[in-house]
Amino acid sequence: MKIDRRSMLRSLLAVAATLAFPKILFAARADKAFEATTSDEAIAELLGAVPTASDKVHMKIPDIAENGAVVPVTVSTDLEDVESISVVVDNNPTPLAASFDMSPKTVAVISVRIKMGQSSIVRAIVKAGGNLYSTSKEVKVTIGGCGG
Amino acid sequence: MDRRDFLWMLGSASAAGMFAGCTSAGLRSDPYAAAPFGNARILHFTDCHAQLMPIYFREPNVNIGVAGAKGRPPHLVGEQLLSQLRMNGGEREAHAFTYLNFEAAARQFGRVGGFAHLKTLVEQQRTEVGDGNSLLLDGGDTWQGSATSLWTRGQDMVDACNLLGVDVMTGHWEFTYRDEEVLQNIERFNGEFVAQNVRVSEEALFDGAAAFDEDSGHAFKPYTIREMGERRVAIIGQAFPYTPIANPGRFIPDWSFGIRDGEMQEMVDHIRATEQPDAVIVLSHNGMDVDVKMASRVTGVDAILGGHTHDGVPEPLLIENSGGKTLVTNAGSNGKFLAVLDLDIGKGKINDYRYRLLPVFSNLLPAHSEMQQFITDVRAPYKAQLEEPLAVAESLLYRRGNFNGTFDQVICDALLEVGDAEISLSPGFRWGTSVLPGDVVTMERLMDQTAMTYPETYVRDMAGSELKLILESVADNLFHTDPYYQQGGDMVRLGGLNFTCDPTAKMDERISDLTLDNGKSVEASKNYKVAGWATVGSQSTGAPVWDVVAEYLKAKKTIKVDKVNTPKLRNVAGNPGLSDYSGIVES
Amino acid sequence: MGKPIKIRAKLKGDIAEVKALLPHDMESGMRRDPDSGELVAAHYITDVTIEHNGEQVLVAYWGTAVSKNPYIAFSIKGAAVGDVIKVSWTDNKSDTSETETTLK
Fold first, then answer.
1. pLDDT tens digit sequence for B563-575
2. Which residue in A138, B273, B403, C47 has the most C-beta neighbors within 10 A?
3. Strands B440-442 and B423-428
């Protein structure tokens, strides 16, 4: 029931958006991608292809997390026609953390904060002009405290 | 000669001979004087750890560099440091920069540092170049490390730095006081506190927390521009990036740190584009290996004047990046050194430089009377506590080194005995002074090792697997091949526990053969009674560690350290950062 | 109704820089209650929608790994004084919250 209602709300929103501004269409949440337990699976489910590494995708994220429960990440890109930006944490139980559907009206910069249970590769994936581009970085989650 | 050797030899070729000849009797009347050079003098000290009085400080005999850092300054100790850096300043210089022959040399050359002596040297160096042509920079770790700094919540050091004439500072242990105390001390400080990499958290900004710039989130002024005659020098602050990880975040909940080298590049570009600087200097508390990496990635910085890792590196490294070259220095600790960077600054660029890292020998520098009076006055209310005798040292007591020091062994032994534990843990701090055999260990010397705002001890059960995880995590903070993942402290010190360490291995593979002092192997699933102190995550409930160690010392009356728990080392035989190791090095 | 959203927006030229804090527990479903030892049921924001003068310009889809009290920052092009920016969310229990701000 819950899901139904949510889907319905979403459809209504989508319909309303389509009516008012026919050019911008947002898809529904890819629930299966969020349930996937590997990065590859999540990316395939969400985006349908394998991204290529690109120096035009930029990710600001700490090398060592101050708090694994709150890891700030900012993704930006120099690419044109950005359709979506996604953040994936390889070693999380469900790696897909967040995905943002962009429009021509948004600047291609997004900040969000994610949870990391342990040290992991974090990936930022940008869909632009129908193609997938990515960058990645190791983020360390440590017990800390014995140094200084 | 590989490319790396060549790069730092370029640096040494243009540096003036520091302290050369000062021990050749009568050759030079003033070892601190140098031929005039350039048009701007930058004075820099760092990590004084609140040592207002002259002290002894033994440099390490273990400072291992791995991967790209192997054998590169600062990862050179003893004879390796002297020979590879071609130092020829005699025994006094060797004593200043190495652990060699420490006890005898300490007796011969006397104590080092002390703000009254440092003040005399600073005044001399500033007078030499005339008014308005010098700056005094403090790299931080200034408000913590002594009894009086703790008892005055850093205020004695703020006042001392005002008297010393510090122009600009950044910080690390400064942030182990509560946030409102940090802000009060900065208010009390006559110079400027700069840090580009400290941001106010999003929650705090929404709740209206104070920030230097609400828009950018900078908690403090990120940089300052100082004019020296016609020349404009930008000083960008870089606080210790991992403060809320290495130290308790609970004292500073609204502030977030990080290396933020992307933001550093944006800051440098912004300053170069809008401020017409003739020189751009980063005042850094990154630690030297992190500074070297940052210098290779960030363009447009003329010099990174560094600290944190307490490395007395006599000459700058000259690091190449895509935009040019950047000098990287590290200026030691405990008030033992004053760095002098003389610059010939042209329009928008530095033409040439000279660098000297001057050891502050208190016997060679008369005490500055006003500073001496200030120090006497600030210590007066605490005199009896400071001078309380606890025991007599029968061994040399020191801390610094990658794995253990004799003073840390005393702390670990005290934790074991007083806590009736099987194993003890003590953090791998790099501050803490040295005590010569025959000298009294006073409360002041004990506080030099322990004075901090989270001194509470604990005794609790830990599984063998948990101990292994702690050792692996700390070893990774020390020996990760990428310095951006290091935190710049040393290995956690152990009582009652022994292990084998391979610094060159990966995370989870460096530590093996955990064994108790009685020879029994540590079992992953078995619980052990562990005593320790300085917990970062939450406040422990036991007595402050100085009470525990004082009780132990008073009962012992004399302290002789026969054995230190230091690991068997693997895959580092011949490493130039390892010499006279007291444990086993597998060949 | 979910907790109120906090929003701050600043106009720089024709770019609206927006920061929003969305108070929410963001329970992953994998955390155990420290007292009972029971798993705490998953409860997290799944969809965030950003509208500029009624037009959807950005939709965020979140999983359980977005931090408690989520924060989001983004920028919108072609904005002007008087424009309305609206942020709304829906969670997996169909709770919702929304707020809007007028650019100054």
1. 899 999 999 999 9
2. B403
3. unpaired
- Candidates C55, C57, C72; nearest CB to A20: C55
Checking ipTM against 0.90, whether it exceeds it is yes
Q: B467 to chain A: nearest residue by CA?
A: A143
| Nearest Cβ partner for C66 among A30, A97, A107 | A97
Run of H or E including B103: helix B102-109
The reported pLDDT for the residue numbered A24 is: 54
Cβ–Cβ of B206/C10 closer than 8 Å?
Answer: no
Whether residue B504 is predicted with pLDDT greater than 80 in this model: the reply is: yes
Alpha-helical runs (H) found in B348-450 = 369-379, 383-387, 406-419, 443-450
pLDDT at B398: 98
B3-50+116-375 maps to CATH 3.40.50.300 = no
Taking 3-state DSSP, the helix, strand and coil percentages for chain C, each rounded to the nearest 5, stand at 0, 55, 45
Look at B215 and C8 and tell me if their CB atoms are within 8 Å: no
By CB neighbour count within 10 A (0-12 exposed, 13-18 middle, 19+ buried), where does B388 fall? middle
Let me know if domain A31-139 sits in CATH 2.60.40.2470.
yes
- Coil/strand/helix, residue B67: helix
Query: What amino acid is encoded at B552 in this protein?
Result: Y
Nearest CA in chain C to A116: C65
d(CA B350, CA B194): 23
pLDDT digits (tens, 9 = 90+) for B419-431: 999 999 999 999 9
Residue A17 predicted with pLDDT over 50: no
Homologous superfamily of the B388-569 domain (CATH): 5'-Nucleotidase, C-terminal domain (3.90.780.10)
Three-class secondary structure of residue B169 per DSSP: strand
B262 contacts on A by Cβ (under 8 Å): 58, 60
Domain extent at residue C61: 6-102
Q: What tokens appear for B180 in the block?
A: 């409102």
Q: Is C25 exposed, middle or buried (0-12, 13-18, 19+ CB in 10 A)?
A: middle
- DSSP state string for A4-17: HHHHHHHHHHHHHH
> In angstroms, what separates the C-alpha of C99 from chain A's closest C-alpha?
16
Q: Which residues, 6 or more positions from A1, have their beta carbon under 8 angstroms from its beta carbon?
A: none
**A28/chain B closest Cα distance in angstroms:** 29
Arithmetic mean of pLDDT over chain B? 94
Record: contact A112-C94, CB cut-off 8 A: no
Query: C91 to chain A nearest CA, in Å?
Result: 9
| DSSP H or E segment with residue B540 | none
**A11 has a pLDDT exceeding 90:** no
- Model confidence band, residue B128 (pLDDT cutoffs 50, 70, 90): very high
pLDDT (tens digit, 9 = 90+) per residue, B178-224? 999 999 999 999 999 999 999 999 999 999 899 999 989 999 999 99
E-state strands within B467-541: 490-495, 497-501, 511-516, 527-533
C-alpha closest to that of B568 among B523, B518, B514 = B514
For an interface test with A, which of C19, C48, C50, C58 has the most A Cβ atoms less than 10 Å from its Cβ? Answer: C58
pLDDT at A10: 52
Give the mean pLDDT of C12-27. Answer: 97
Query: What ranges do the domains of chain B cover?
Result: 3-50+116-375, 388-569
pLDDT, tens digit, 9 for 90 and up, residues C26-70: 999 999 999 999 999 999 999 999 999 999 999 999 999 999 999
Give the CATH number, domain containing residue C10. Answer: 2.60.40.10
pLDDT of A142:
86
* pLDDT digit string, tens, across residues C70-88: 999 999 999 999 999 999 9
Six token digits for residue B91: 């025994």
Name subunits touching B (3+ CB pairs < 8 A): A, C
Contact between chains at A66 and B488 (C-beta distance less than 8 A): no
Q: What is the dihedral of CA B376, B380, B382, B383, to 10 degrees?
A: 80
